[in-house]
Amino acid sequence: MYISVIGTGYVGLVTGTCFAEFGVDVTCIDKDPGKIEDLRKGIIPIYEPGLEELVKKNIKDGRLHFTTEIGEGVRQSLVVFISVGTPPRGDGSADLQFVEEVAKSIAENMDSYKVIVNKSTVPVGTGARISEIISRSRPDLEFDVASNPEFLREGSAIEDSMRPDRIVIGVESEQAKAILRDLYRPLYLIETPFVFTNIPTAELIKYASNAFLATKVSFINEMANICERINGDVHVVAKGMGLDGRIGSKFLHAGPGYGGSCFPKDTNALVNIAQELGEPTRIVEAVIKVNENQKLKAFEKVKSAAGGSLQGKTVALLGLAFKPNTDDFRDAPAEVVVKGIIREGGAVRAYDPAAMEQARQALGEKGIVYCKDAYEAVEGADLMAVITEWNQFRLLNLERCRSLLKDPVLVDLRNVYEPATARKLGFEYSCVGRN
Ligand SMILES: NC(=O)c1ccc[n+]([C@@H]2O[C@H](COP(=O)([O-])OP(=O)(O)OC[C@H]3O[C@@H](n4cnc5c(N)ncnc54)[C@H](O)[C@@H]3O)[C@@H](O)[C@H]2O)c1
Q1: Could you read off the pLDDT of 276-291 as tens digits, one per residue?
Q2: For the chain, which residues make up each domain, given as ranges?
Q3: Fold exhibited by the domain 2-197
Q4: Catalytic one among 18, 28, 227, 262?
Q5: Is pTM, for the whole model, over 0.90?
Q6: Is 211 exposed, middle or buried (0-12, 13-18, 19+ CB in 10 A)?
């Protein structure tokens, strides 16, 4: 089978590469010529463990192609995936301009029956909108639209695509359903659960899933804040809750709030969709507020560890990406912390194993020194804070850090160290939801 994937970002590149690995002939299309040029040479524009090897292997095997020419890819494909960005607009709703632009280009370039599958995270009703755009432009051609939301996590995207928890497909024609079932046969063979439903339901499943996970994060963050007042331990609270099979232990890690390209944008979009439908999602509205507050609390913790004023203080920040194993800095809690420190007259020495360039683009240079490793960041700083729980920070030589710092002050916003151990090493130590 020939397929094409339009939009070669985190989702499109991983999706296209994994289908190629399953033996499908895939053309990845992007409007960014620089990205396509690099990809043809096997240069990967994002940090995603395992992706580079897989892209190179499938280019070499002749199953993975890259182009900026949408027509070329669309004409030879039976299935066309849309995986372009759906960034937030000012009011929190999803901006569909890229999806609609692509739907128009697909229509202009179609020459036979196609299944157009939307993988971008989109508001309910977008599948119908894509159908309308295509049928208006090409009343002469048969086609089907399907919704196939993506659940991969940055940092483990390959594993999530090759062995997903489930595949959700919203499809309303038997022909398209059979084609997609055939395309996903390798996952059928490993007994991946499939949920076939109508298009609006599939579209909602994506938002509902992300909003629910965000709810777990905000929930445990509120419990952490209570723990700080009662001499409780949020780790133990999370363990005690998570052992209940109805709750589960995942996404119960207290910290500086969720970030990234999905949770903030998708929770806001869901609130917007629900308001427009006259069925407000009060829980999700609260989740968003709790998260914004948690990011501010993270900053306040750093300020308080600095003695209540950041004026003239230098803070070493370890980790900038919104989570480990990614270079994604979008809506990262680190952004709020860095901006707060600089606003209040402090300076930052920062290090992240993957997100330095992204952070530099978002934050600029003023007040920030970008360092080559954790120890360089810590050297001469007044205090240090861990914002992203990269594995390399878990095994940091804390004694060396203490000797490089001006004052032995450690703010552990991800609870990666044992409080007793850090204090025994002489640190003035604070964390989240534990004393
Ligand atoms: N990043 C994630 O972890 C993740 C996970 C699940 C779902 N999603 C959803 O998937 C969608 C894509 O997300 P992403 O993170 O891959 O985005 P991204 O910004 O990394 O990539 C989008 C790509 O689309 C390209 N593009 C935009 N308009 C185009 C056009 N007209 N023709 C061709 N290419 C075009 C851009 O150049 C860019 O390379 C979003 O809706 C997102 O919410 C993302």
Answers
A1: 999 999 999 999 999 9
A2: 2-197, 263-430
A3: Rossmann fold (3.40.50)
A4: 262
A5: yes
A6: buried
